[in-house]
Amino acid sequence: MATGGSGDVLAGIIGSLLAQGFSAEKAAAVGVYWHGAAGDLAASNRVSIGSLVAGDIVEAL
Fold this sequence. Notes:
Elements: H1 6-19, H2 24-44, H3 54-60
Helix pairs in contact: 1-2, 2-3
């Protein structure tokens, strides 16, 4: 996911998991999984992968 802002979405997911008490290792692993799954879901709803924006990933979460 090389779309602008997608790294910020990932950082937000991981940060929220850390704030809930997850260990750094578990927060990173779970965060990357959720981010990827949400990206796949968001992309499946688009005509072109090039039209995917970070907000689409957030909505898919």
